[in-house]
Write a structure and sequence with these properties.
Layout (H helix, E strand, L loop, with lengths): L3 H15 L3 E6 L5 H13 L2 E5 L2 H10 L15 E5 L5 H11 L7 E7 L2 E4 H8 L4 H31 L1
Length: 164
């Protein structure tokens, strides 16, 4: 029979997974306490839920939310999880950028789940390299304002030529 603590942990994980847009599985072997603290702080700032849970309990919670995919390979060994609550790309970016500091020695992306489908490490890394939402909005704004700016410059030049 399952212990009360395990049942509560599964319930808590299930609630977190219900609101997650993306899940990144991370091998955190070798990371120090200070590095982990810094990662958790950056995760909070990025609105990413980063935590460690028992692999079997996490698999049960996935099934509870209707994600019935094989994650045995992703949950082998030391595994932590990064959940994107508002932005599906945020956990990928966070872990990828943080792992670059260690040159792939301590923090390694194992894979992820996006829209209920298991994705490999390469897909998670490709997502991490995409511009963030705010960067994309900035690019769109620049693109929309560029013709207006060019028109203003052109009109100013014409006005200066007429004055001369």
């Amino acid at each position: 029979m399952a212990s009360k603590a395990n049942l509560e942990a599964v319930e808590m994980l299930t609630e977190k997974l219900r609101s997650a847009k993306a899940i990144v599985f991370v091998d955190y072997k070798g990371i120090t306490v200070n590095e982990d603290t810094k990662l958790r702080s950056e995760a909070r700032n990025a609105n990413v839920e980063y935590f460690v849970a028992k692999n079997r309990l996490f698999q049960i919670a996935l099934k509870n939310v209707g994600i019935d995919v094989e994650t045995k390979e992703l949950t082998e060994g030391t595994t932590s999880f990064a959940l994107g609550m508002e932005d599906g790309v945020a956990p990928s970016k966070l872990i990828y950028d943080f792992a670059k500091d260690f040159k792939g020695e301590k923090l390694k992306i194992k894979g992820g789940i996006i829209d209920g489908q298991v994705v490999d490490k390469a897909t998670v890394e490709a997502l991490a390299k995409l511009p963030s939402r705010s960067e994309l909005l900035g690019m769109i704004a620049y693109g929309l304002l560029s013709p207006v700016r060019m028109l203003a410059v052109g009109l100013t030049n014409v006005a200066e030529q007429k004055e001369a």
